[in-house]
Amino acid sequence: MKALPTSFLLAIFLVCCFPLHAQTPPTGFTSTVVSSGWNEAVGLTFTSTGSKMFVWERPGKVWVVVNGQRQLVLDISPEVGGWEDHGLLGFVLDPNFDTNGYLYLLYVVDRHHLLNFGTASYSAAANDYYSATIGRLTRYTATPAGTGYSVNPASRKVLIGTTKSNGIPSTFNGHVTNALLFGTDGTLLVSTGDGAHPYPDLGNYNATYAAQALADGIIRAKEDVGSLRAQLVDCLSGKVLRIDANTGAGIPGNPFYDAANPSAARSKVWALGFRNPFRMCLKPGTGSTNPTAANPGTLYIGDVGAASWEEVNVVSSARQNFGWPLFEGLTPYDAFTSSNVYNRDAPNPLYNTGGCTRQFFYFQDLVKQATPTGTATFLNPCNSGQTIPGSVPTFVQTRPLIDWGHGAGPARTGTFSGSTAATINIGASGSPVSGAQFGGNASTGGVFYPYTDFPAPYANSYFFGDYVSSWIRNMTVNGSNQPSAVGNFVNSGAVPVAFAVSPGETGLFYVNFFPSEIRKISYITAASPPVAVASSNKTFGPAPLLVQLTGSASTNPGGGTLTYRWNFGDGTATSSAANPSHTFAAPSAAPINYTVTLTVTNGAGLTNQASLTISVNNTPPQVTITSPANNSTYPLTGNTTYPLRATVVDTEHSGGQLAYAWQTVLRHNTHQHPNPIDTTRQTSTTIVPYGCGTETYYYTISLTVTDAGGLATTQEVRLNPDCNATSFTLVDADALIDIDIQPLVDGAILNLATLPTRNLNIRANANPATTGSVVFALSGAQTQNQTESVVPYALFSDVNGDYNPWTPPVGNYTLLATPYSGAGGTGSPGVPLSISFSVIDNGTPGPFTLTTTVFGSGSIARSPALATYASGTNVTLTATPAAGFQFTGWSGDATGTTNPLPVSMTSNKTIMATFAAVAAGQSVSSFVLVNADSNADIQTLAAGATLNLATLPTRNLNIRATTSPATVGSVVFALSGAATRAHTESVVPYALFSDNGGAYNPWTPLVGSYSLTARPYTAASAGGTAGTALTLAFSVIDQVAGPYTLTVNTSGSGTVSKNPNQATYASGSTVSLTAAPAAGFTFTGWSGSATGTTNPLSVSMTSDKTITATFTAIATTTYTLTVNTSGSGTVSKNPNQATYASGSTVSLTAAPAAGFTFTGWSGAATGSANPLSVSMTSDKAITATFTANAGQQVTGYTLVNADTDLDIQALATGATLNLATLPTRNLNIRATTSPATVGSVVFALSGAATRAHTESVAPYALFSDYLSDYFAWTPPVGSYTLTARPYTAAGGGGTAGTALTISFSVSDVAARPASAPAATALPAKAAAPRAGEAASAYPNPSPDGRFSVRLPADFGGAVRYRLVSALGATLATGTLPVEASPVQLLDFSAAQLATGVYYLLLDSGSDPSARPRRPQVQLKLLKQ
After folding, report:
1. Which of 66, 520, 599, 650 is the right S-S partner for 621, CB 3.0 to 4.6 Å?
2. What is the tens place of the pLDDT at every residue in 619-658?
3. Which 8-state DSSP code applies to residue 1378?
């Protein structure tokens, strides 16, 4: 999809967005952004578990969001017509998506794709917008791929719109395709709009594309009724359809289902009378699971209005008619109820009887306003004593639950005054619906909130929105769908286009159209997570770059204080300050990005993150838009196309490293209407003329250029309407309408027969600020001189804006209008405007009727079989005689005996087929085509047959006549056409070119058309009585169809495989080409007989073809990957390299430390996938977060050397311990717990030795310890099972935690001597001893792991020391030498101690047998 023109249609979809405002829900709720940065997202839905969110964008892409990361699922942008209101608007997952992978898409088709796809004229880059087209429903099959999905384009199945003639008609710029939903019964529900002009469109409207649609066969003649298509039962427009999701056919039980034609439009209709049913939802707890019950559930629908009213409708049963366009909201719509338009599906049986001239009923004859009983009497307008026959569908309007007026309102609900429909304002005295008044301009529908966490009055209510007026409200309804209250939920700032709830979590989700984001509204509880907000005073600059970071704007909805952790992304230490400053360095002068992550944690341990990017050694691009110029003016006389150009300079990056994003936005009063973003470097935009009225209009064109480091610059220019130039507008002067029809430009031709009215006027558009009057001079077929001094300036004047009508005579005209600064044509004259135009009155031919009658016994079939035909339609009539009769010819508006008969519909026609009784006796009953080589029959020769010499088994042919009886006197043949022959056969077989004893003579017919007649006679040589002849027409062609060759070439390094791989291919066969690039190359496209980048490529063999695959060398850009950790754990990279080639993939594996769990990635990656695949498309910094485990559990075992008290190894289940190879036979086993300290641990050892033991102090050792000095155990050889369970209290008391059980074995083979490590004395500092002084350490905490330790005065001799972690793991041991100084230096910096708590155990004396009577000291050390 390319750049598209901008247009504005009031109160229809995707034309209105707003400045950024707060989207604030009521007190007690919080609104958060779930996902942002979308390209016009228009909907979201969830998988059955809620673990994955699907989002679809209007231009044609479908994404899945998993753990916060979006992945592209499907891109059908080349097929989607993404202009004005159109695009990919509907999407739904199959109820069995988890097993069948079906997903469904509803969209308008780009006309270029509709007419050209599959032909040589098709280009994926081409668009044909502002033209007639169709809406289409397709199904694709998705298969799991990693954490996302892949879709094979070949799985595409079209359910609605297989051809241009059976899609959802689009004759203007909006409301065609809307929403998809599965009913409770598994049927697929589809909402469609009327596809008409937003102004009163009664058909034959030259401001639409209806004439083009009629010529194309997109609509039938009966459907050229504009908005009234919503009332045609046999039409897909303005409906809710109920179809089979596998076939697209209607469902038996639908109100107008035709068992003989389940694919007919009428077979699919469930409800009708909608204008733009944009979004719909299913009311929970409604519907049957049995499709035959015809109860899919109750639908709540937001129907976007036209002139005055917005609606919330409820479809609770089949055949409901909501009245559009005869009704808008709760009120009749006079523009349609006062217009007489035939419903050509509703013939009047009284036509041409008793003076009745109404051949069909008018639409307004068939729909009546709501009644208390829901019933009404429908009288025939030609005879009030007769009712309209039951074969013609009639309806009583189903009114909306509520409606609200455009602008300020009012908001209303329906009541009755006696038996007459009435309205009452919401919240008024006596109103059944309470609530404050409101207004709006575009109902977007909504969703029921099914969860109980929202308090009254929000729980279990229906939430709906209005995106023009930027609000969200909730409505309370009862089981009978009667509303009782409407409340305000989000008063302003929201631009909702879709709502959803997740099966996996609470909260109301909605799509905000501008900015394009997914938001979630939640009710605040103590369990609500905090909201992290990070900002900085700088985002770029040269190294070293000092940046002030701010996190204090973060909030905790549940109350209480927050703690902060900043990860700067550059490998330096984290910060716990709320607003730290940090200096960013760079390894070189090249630009480098650092991802700064702020993690905030509340008192409940819940976290939230926010990230910033700091670009060091980088500056943003410098952007200057050179075309169009700022503050240019655009004319109001027609569309204007502007080239978009800019000068861009970037100091650090080349042009190929810059990304462009152009966007054109129509500004209308206080809101705006954005076009999709165009990423082409040099492109164009088309401006539609709006402005210079009482409302403010102008355009902005912005360009955002982003460099490879992520720095972006946006520049904007403004285009203003040229209000100083005069222009003309043709106006509909009917008293009930008074609306603009079209701009009136030089050379225009106005056809009175196709305009919406003959009551016209012409308005001059001049700048009211500088214009005091306008002087008109009309000459030509009629003259008119008029001076207007008050807006509007109308050629035939007006009364307070109510235009006086003028029906112009047919002819040519010249119109001159001159603005003056003063009233009455005084003051200074402005620039005059003169145009020429002409008026004609040529009614659009048709629709025409074709009446067929028969004389004698037989029937006539017509194709297509329609009630009326557009001018020029070709109809084929086939006459079929009854038994004992023969067709003898046509009469009336056709003559001759051609059968089938082609008829061109250029007028109403009546044609009769005559069938004559076959006289008893002889007749020719059929012809048979014979192979004159083998004398075998080839086929029966039927009327209208085409014989292809190239495909017949032989070119040596003959034709045999079959008679009744089988033997007659003779048969006389007469062949005419491309060749002639007159021949008489008197002996069986009766052959046109004779035979010799049954051996047929050969005839190779010339290419051309033929007519063959054969008549039997009772005697030989055409003697006796003539019987009944048989005449038929046939044709001969000689067209070779294949085989064809497919030549495949390559450009660059790569290969192409063909499937099937053959030398030649039959005509119409399909070949799959797969391009495989060589290493260092990428496939960039096809050329020759195919274009584009689709891979694999399907090629239809309709001729010899040559196709080239182009492979382009990949640039050798390299990037760095920086990995950080938060919490205790490690991350491994595979491959582990300093740099990575662009596009390469790196696997990161996070391994938590004991007592910790990996909880997710941040920085350049999010989510919790582990291992994580990282595609190297830029320099990246990624942080792995490890969180301490909640609750008590035993997480592992460690085998300990009881001689040195050092860890030997982790003890895992299945381990085998060989006493001969271990460093000692004096062992112990320590249990590791989470948290590090518990109340107690109960051990149970069984197997070759048994032990039951309880430890209440860390470390928790199976054979106990004294101050981490482990007691020795030499295990007997054999097998063991060990279980340890933590408890919250000492001695195995309190609450039991999670146990860990392992099995291991002990052996004693291949023994070798073990050596013990020698203790090393550490240097000490001198200090004066003081008697009786206790042990101490300083500095404590230590910044680098070095401590000065003061020994107790009662210690003597050598002192053993051991440093252990808070979990009891020994980290270092040694012996301090005997020295005079009691202060010793212990240097643990080489151990690279992490920040935390450690314990230093000091033991006086060197005799192990003396424990535990030796003096012992334990010091608590802190490492910063």
Report:
1. 650
2. 999 999 999 999 999 887 667 889 999 999 999 988 888 9
3. P
